[in-house]
Design goal:
5-stranded antiparallel sheet, single chain, DUF3567, DUF3567 domain-containing protein, alpha+beta
């Protein structure tokens, strides 16, 4: 898990696959095949809701992040883009 963005309005976290691919683990016991996927969690602090993007949604969001790295947007531009995902956020944030 890697925090990508944190502001007064949003938090974006990149959820990375949790797979132990070390050589020592592979030598002791073979690992079953795993689908290594990543995703992004976007939390709207204003509404207290979150959305998890995976699959094709995550790939599209990854492209957006790469564009941000190339173009260095303003905070307002980043917030406007994140705000476009708020309609997908249906899950209330639950503290574990």
């Amino acid at each position: 898990m890697k925090m990508l963005y944190d502001s007064d309005s949003f938090v974006v976290v990149h959820m990375l696959p949790d797979a132990d691919l070390s050589d020592s683990a592979a030598k002791t016991a073979p690992l079953p095949p795993q689908l290594l996927r990543h995703g992004f969690e976007i939390v709207d602090k204003r509404s207290g809701k979150e959305v998890y993007l995976d699959g094709s949604w995550a790939e599209l969001f990854q492209q957006q992040i790469l564009a941000w790295q190339r173009d260095t947007p303003t905070q307002e531009e980043v917030e406007d883009t994140l705000d476009s995902y708020v309609g997908l956020a249906q899950n209330p944030v639950v503290v574990h």
